[in-house]
Write a structure and sequence with these properties.
The chain has helices at about 1-15, 65-75, 115-125, 250-265, 295-305, 305-320, 330-340, 365-375, 380-385, 445-455, and strands spanning about 35-45, 50-55, 85-90, 100-105, 130-140, 175-180, 185-190, 200, 205, 220-225, 225-235, 240-245, 270, 275, 285-290, 405-415, 415-425, 430-440. By secondary structure, it is α/β, with parallel strands linked by helices. The chain is globular.
Length: about 475
């Protein structure tokens, strides 16, 4: 009868709405309010959902969004993908070693390109007979834009907000190596060399025997009005260690690094810099390839590196586009999820790093993606990129009682705390995909409660036959 059908539909609707208000049956959220959390746990042996609470609600994932970018990259590019940076020129090379014209830096956006790589490429230039360079030119024809990370203006001078760049080099930070002169005074050496920048060194050593695990607690630099000032008092245990200071934009940093490193090696180059495309007839004078994508993603996820994530996101768009002017990294990510059968309805992307007030996922989508990665050909590369509980990365000081079986990406933003990854099982328990995301003004106070909830969710249990009801939404 129609009235019975109507009651059934109403009951179904109420069941669907309940998880958005109340915790799923049997799920103890501890001190977390029901509306503050989204939870999803899936048994990876049976496929059974063992816990789900507000699993379909769109939530800000913070840096666990990097898992979505990593999944799409491994799916589209393969774990052996490498970025390639080249120095090229169409200018003649004179007998005296003069490259009589432009040297082009064809930027790949390689997010892990560093000062050692730059020096290696400059050594290749010298091996090819180049001693003097007319002018350095940046070919920046890689991405139509570097993507956005809106609403972080207050942190614009912080390294974690640095956008990707075709000529990205060492995250555009100057390294300050702590040394000691013959008289025992603290000295500072910059990398790259910066002979044009006045250095006001006000730092000194103390007589303390304290260890120096984080030298930035003792010594720091500030660049203001064209002067680099170094402050602090450091124990001798900081000798030889490095701290970092953000001084220039990416393009200026790359220019200064190239010119000063080249001159430091006894060669010459003009001070100017131009921007333009590499001529079609240009030959390659130096080339270097990054380490493989699987290792770059480990740097990204273990240390929650936004520059790497945003670069990988843009690279996906660049590689998927037939026309460089129409690159669409968001579409590239969505297509890889769709090809794996993962619904993307709750997904909102801005830059693929989680450094965003707008990005959204659902706990279910994240969990289903984790399950797909676990069953994929790139399973080991994906799992290997994640922080290991109590051992490394952003999880080094958490879940020490659980250790290696627990591999979770962390996420931290204002009003957001998140965990997503795997409990790999053992001792009679099955592997699990685990997602816990808190969106709340109290998020920073709920870290301990979130960790306790996570431990309850992965509490070892006998292997499931797939028939025992869990704490899932039916």
């Amino acid at each position: 009868p129609p009235d019975i059908m109507m009651r059934k539909r109403l009951a179904t609707l109420l069941l669907a709405l309940l998880p958005s208000v109340l915790p799923a049956a049997g799920l103890d959220l501890g001190g977390i309010r029901p509306e503050e959390a989204a939870v999803y746990v899936q048994n990876l042996r049976t496929g059974q959902i063992t816990a789900a609470h507000r699993a379909d609600a769109p939530v800000n994932p913070a840096s666990t969004m990097k898992l979505v970018t990593a999944f799409a990259a491994l799916h589209a590019l393969g774990e052996d993908f490498r970025w390639q940076t080249e120095f090229k020129s169409a200018a003649p090379l004179r007998p005296n070693g003069l490259l009589d014209g432009n040297l082009y830096w064809a930027g790949s956006g390689d997010p892990v390109f560093d000062q050692r790589d730059l020096l290696e490429m400059q050594a290749q230039l010298r091996d090819n007979g180049v001693k003097h360079i007319g002018r350095l030119v940046f070919d920046r024809n890689l991405w139509p834009h570097s993507g956005t990370a809106d609403d972080f203006a207050d942190d614009s001078d912080r390294a974690f907000t640095t956008p990707p760049d075709p000529q990205m080099l060492a995250y555009k930070v100057v390294g300050l190596t702590i040394g000691r002169d013959g008289g025992g005074a603290l000295t500072v050496h910059t990398s790259p060399p910066l002979p044009e920048i006045p250095l006001d060194n006000r730092a000194s050593f103390t007589a303390s025997a304290a260890p120096c695990p984080k030298p930035a607690k003792f010594v720091w630099g500030k660049y203001e009005n064209g002067i680099l000032t170094v402050y602090g008092k450091a124990p001798p245990s900081c000798l030889g260690k490095e701290v970092y200071v953000n001084m220039f934009d990416a393009q200026d940093f790359a220019r200064r690094s190239f010119i000063n490193q080249w001159r430091h090696g006894g060669n010459s180059i003009s001070d100017g810099l131009a921007v333009g495309p590499v001529p079609p007839q240009a030959r390659t004078l130096a080339r270097i390839r990054s380490k493989p994508l699987r290792d770059v993603l480990a740097d990204m996820n273990k240390h929650s590196n936004n520059i790497i994530a945003r670069t990988v996101f843009l690279t996906l768009g660049e590689r998927a586009a037939a026309d460089k002017a129409r690159q669409n990294p968001e579409a590239a990510v969505r297509s890889r999820l769709a090809l794996s059968g993962i619904p993307t309805a709750p997904l909102v992307l801005e830059n693929g790093s989680g450094l965003s007030r707008r990005e959204r996922v659902s706990a279910r989508m994240m969990g289903d993606m984790l399950a797909a990665a676990y069953r994929s050909p790139f399973k080991q590369a994906f799992i290997g990129s994640l922080p290991i509980a109590g051992r490394d990365g952003t999880l080094k000081s958490r879940f020490k009682n659980i250790g290696a079986p627990l591999r979770l990406k962390t996420g931290t933003l204002k009003n957001v705390r998140a965990l997503a990854g795997y409990y790999l099982g053992g001792n009679g328990s099955d592997p699990l995909a685990v997602v816990v995301i808190i969106n709340s003004e109290r998020a920073d106070k709920l870290l301990g409660e979130m960790d306790k909830l996570t431990e309850r969710l992965i509490a070892p249990a006998p292997p499931s036959d797939g028939l025992t009801p869990g704490a899932a939404n039916p």
